[in-house]
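Class, look over these structure tokens:
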Amino acid sequence: MAKVFQRPIAVALDSSAWTLTGAATKEAAVDDLIGQPDDGASYLECATTPGGEERIAFLFPPIPEAVSVVQVEIHLRSEEQGGVANHAPYLLRNGSNIDGVGLSLPAGVYTDHFDTWPTDPATGLAWSKAAVDATPAGVVQAAATALARLTQIYRVVEFVPFSAKAGAALEVGSRIIRLLRNELWLPEITGPLTWGDLEIFEDGLYSDPYYPDALGAGKGSEVWQRAGVRVLSSAFNLDEMSVTLGTFDLLGFLCHLWDAGAAEAAAGSAPSSRPAHADPGALRFYQRETKAWPESGAAAAQGGTQLIEVGADVELVELPGNLIEEERTNDLLYSGFSAGAFTGWTVTGNVVADTGDLLFVPEVSTQSAKFARAGSANCRLAQAPAAYAGSEVLTLATWHKDDSGAALSWSLQRSTDSFYWNDSTAAWQVGFVANAYTVRSTPYRDVSKPIVLSAAAQTLTLTYYAEAAADQVNHAYHAQLGQGRYATSVIFTTSAVATRAASILRMENDSDNGRCWITNQGTAGVTFTPEASTDASIAEDQVLYNTSDTGDGVDYDRVYYRHSTGLMCFERKNGDDTFTATKAFTLVRGTPVHVVARATGAAGELGLAPNTLSIFVNGVKGTDVVANSTARNGPWLDLGCAEQPADTIAQFAGGHLADMNVIPQVLPDEIIAGGWR
């Protein structure tokens, strides 16, 4: 027998009486890790009366292919908040409610409860995979005066897998956190008594053409084709001269590195300083020498927007991932409209401090700038940032909201000839131009095109205008003008220019504590959300993974994006030889892209030549290259940055990294194309 444990992925039916707390969606409120319920950090609350029951049902992932299904269990974890509450699991089978046994909930204590369906209630016969996949499941709260909370629901399906044949043992480090993030695949394998030589917790490789496989091809006899399983139990049958091994499949478990990268909890007011990650026990090193102002993961998870302040060396873990970026400076002296009556800004018309509409937490700023135009009068805010030597390239980023539906605009004028910047044509022009932002109904950060200054020394004047329509209302929350062809995260200033230091994230990668990077063969994935769209004038590569052979930045394995060529690359440098697998791709600022790098080893996995490098972008394969060496592993694996000669970090991701995953298996193209994380 085998079991698969599954968490809900979507709501199938909702009576609308179930109110959400602590998560962005109702399914997310009750999809706690199995064995690790949050017991009320997120939950669904329901009030009932004697006049009617209330139901909610969820969809679950498809179960693996199997010979037959033995039974289906639905597990609940609930507590009573008031009255007399009763919760029962139920199936929504072909439109009919099939209720399980109810439990009278104890008051104030979360309690587990489940029921089992050994047969398909629609037919009275054994379950089929199709029937299980098509049946939502949920909870019914009985008709009574009651208030209760549901904090977790999951499904357990027991089924019969195929048999397999034992092969040689495989010893690769285990990663518990990655295991808990995936469904458990627990095949029972029956074979000859000789298999009894395998010890409990020993790993084995198995081949069988009927082994359940995502590609439907079973498991072949080549070492790289076999299934890796870990023995959990063994039972001998001397009548049949056989042994049955209880195992679990290691494909979703073995990894060199797993780092979710994204802030998943919405309980706190700040992003987590340590994202969920697993590694071989190696040192994790993060550095940022200044404070920073990220978006609150808690607010984002609830559909809102709020910026907070975090101290030096606190990881910037936002919902899109772990933010890794280069050092930048905000040249505006007063960026957040936070000082009294807009100290540092020149006010024209009716621009007032609004203490009730905030983007930042009050500890950072207690007001925003509200443009409330009186009829057709002028309504402006202006500031002159620090002087420039000439030839710099700048970007302007503005957090704003357009309350009345009319656009907020901006102008930038230079002192040398009084020309204005036209952001539509990306050029300076004679005569005034107001660059209108896209109308935003909620706080949003808009970013200008790269602003190229002339060679002469100059000063600039930045002005915001709320003058597109009579009586229009707009809010401005933060302005940032600084050098660089794209905007990075917020840098808050109050009376002087301020610099936010670069972020450096590294994993120890030595042989004593285990490699985090590919050793001989393997697959590495990462989800990258860039701060910059493809721009051929950006000289720096945006590095996602990097490890240097001797720690000097000379010989390396590196995954990066090169703007000048528009290529995502997996590169291996060995002495004077450089080998680069490439995939043409156009980045779009703020749009996630999933990148997978793959390297074969000496066995020539997948029928490829040894040391074949491959790169995939959103599941689409690029152009392979065959290197002349195995992976270049150094003392550190840099995540989102690159070590260069002279032991300096000089290149950065410039964006968010999530789903960082390095495994020893060489995954087939089809698995990667299917969205492997």
In short: The longest helix spans residues 176-181.
